[in-house]
């Protein structure tokens, strides 16, 4: 079985020099065999549209940017990359119908049905951040705003008087101690994620769902999401009778899932191109 190892990783600030820094990384290495990218946003034919939180990537096509290198280059949405990683080498391996949900600034998603990644007509399948929770057309209550892990952590840190609102470890100290206000915020967040999973289940009937993102390393996250899902089932007898709960587990690769998934997408693309060329008469 093909396995991969991340030899080096680094963080690049989201600013004007972002693309120049990417250029530096690309041209730093000799004998590259291929380059795999993942990014937020709608990605069609390796072109990034909108860019999600990285709005400056709107319209970027890395394949054209580095075409003079003469090597395979592939780009995929980060949520879809995550489900590819988990179904390739992670906790969704050998699962024909599954999904991954990445909890972070928003909510990333990727869905596999009958062993095929679901893209949709407009490559927007799995954009869970835009799932609505209100019938009011003027409401801005969408999943990515209402059930943001980053916002949940910020609220808890603010209540606890922690100076760094982004400090997940400090927030989970409050959660794991079962501090009342922290637990209320956390339980509401997990109930929201359980509702998202339930809504997905009514449409695609999945066997297993992997929860990723940095907070998925905390055992209480998966435990509480499962408990919230069970409450949905138990409070409505017809739901419990008609709909089977999927397995809800943590993602193996967590914050590295995007990297492994982007690589797997590149390998899939190369296999498809080889197959296409072999069928040319």
Walk me through the structure:
By secondary structure, the protein is an alpha/beta fold. The chain has two domains: 18-77 and 257-278, Nucleotidyltransferase, domain 5 (2-Layer Sandwich), CATH 3.30.420; 91-251, ATPase, nucleotide binding domain (Nucleotidyltransferase, domain 5). The protein is built from ten helices and nine strands. It has helices spanning 18-28, 62-65, 78-89, 143-146, 149-160, 168-176, 180-204, 219-234, 237-242, 257-278; strands spanning 35-39, 42-44, 47-49, 73-77, 98-103, 107-113, 116-117, 208-212, 247-250. The strands form three sheets. It has a five-stranded mixed beta sheet with strand order 7-6-5-8-9, sandwiched between helices. It has a two-stranded parallel ribbon with strand order 1-4. A two-stranded antiparallel sheet has the order 2-3. A hairpin with a 3-residue loop joins strand 5 and strand 6 (107-113). It is globular. It starts with 17 loop residues before the first helix and ends with a helix.
Name the descriptors:
Nucleotidyltransferase, domain 5; 281 residues; alpha/beta; two-stranded parallel sheet
Q: Which second-level CATH architecture of the largest domain applies?
A: 2-Layer Sandwich
Number of domains: 2
User: Sheet with the most strands?
Assistant: 5 strands, mixed
Order of strands, widest sheet:
7-6-5-8-9
Rounded average pLDDT: 92
Extract low-pLDDT stretches: none
Question: Between the first and last Cα atoms, what is the distance in angstroms?
Answer: 32 Å
Order of helices and strands: HEEEHEHEEEHHHHEHHEH
Please specify the SSE layout and strand pairing:
Elements (H helix, E strand, L loop, with lengths): L17 H11 L6 E5 L2 E3 L2 E3 L12 H4 L7 E5 H12 L8 E6 L3 E7 L2 E2 L25 H4 L2 H12 L7 H9 L3 H25 L3 E5 L6 H16 L2 H6 L4 E4 L6 H22 L3
Parallel strand pairs: 1-4, 5-8, 8-9
Antiparallel strand pairs: 2-3, 5-6, 6-7
Helix pairs in contact: 3-10, 5-6, 5-7, 6-7, 7-8
